[in-house]
Design goal:
Blueprint lengths: L2 E3 L32 E2 L2 H5 L2 E4 L3 E6 L8 E6 L3 E4 L9 E13 L9 E4 L1 E4 L3 E4 L3 E3 L3 E8 L3 E2 L11 E12 L2 E21 L5 E10 L2
Parallel strand pairs: 2-15
Antiparallel strand pairs: 1-8, 3-6, 4-5, 4-16, 5-12, 6-11, 7-8, 7-10, 7-14, 9-12, 13-15, 14-15, 15-16
Length: about 210
Amino acid sequence: MSNTEDNRGAGDVRRRTVLKGAAWSVPVVAAAVALPTSVASVTDCDCFKPVPYGPAGVTVSMGNDLNGGKGTATIMHGMGVNSTACQHQDLSYYMDTLGATLTMSRGLNSTAPKTYVGQIITGGGASYGFISDSLISGNMQFTDVELVDGDYDHFHGTPPMVPTAMTVTLQFRWDGKVCVKTFTYPLSYDSSSGEVRGGKPYLGNVTFDMDIAL
C-alpha cells in the first residue's frame, strides 16, 4: 500500500453520532462481470453526482499495534451518488467501486496532509434506478493510518489529526456502456471519541463524527 501527500477541503449535512467499530461499505467489482460494449460520452458520465447519504464517520483502531502510532481505519456510510439528471434508455444502472482514498489532516512526522489508499475487502456491485440518491455500499479498509496518542473525548477544539476527505472511484454500466468517475467527499470535523495510549504497543480506538461538506 502506498501513501501520498495531498490537500483536501471540508460542509453541510446534519450531525450524526457514529458508533465505534462500524465499517463503511463500498461496492467491489464483481469477479466475473462482462464489460460493456461501448464507452459512454463525457456528457453521459457527468450526470452522475456525489451527494451525502446517511451518517459519516471514520473509526481508527490501534489494537495491539507495534508500528508506532499506526492503525486500521474503517469508513461508515455517508457517501452517495445522485443520478436524477441522467437520461438513459435503461431503467437502472450498475455501479462498481474500483478504489478509494482517505486523507488525514497530517502525519505523525509532518504537518502536511497525508493520503492513504484503501483496500476493497468484501462486497459487490449493485444495481440502482435513475430516480434518487444511491448509497455506495461494500467494505473498504485503510491500513497504517497514523494517529497521535491522546484522549479524543477531551480535546479542546479540533484534534491534531482528523479525516479531511474521501475519494471514491466508481464504474457505471448501463445500456451497453461504461464510464468511470472519481468523486471527492470533503469531510468537516464534528466530534471525536475514544483514546489511544502510546508506547509499545499502541492501543485504543478513536471514532471521528464527520459532516460531508457537499
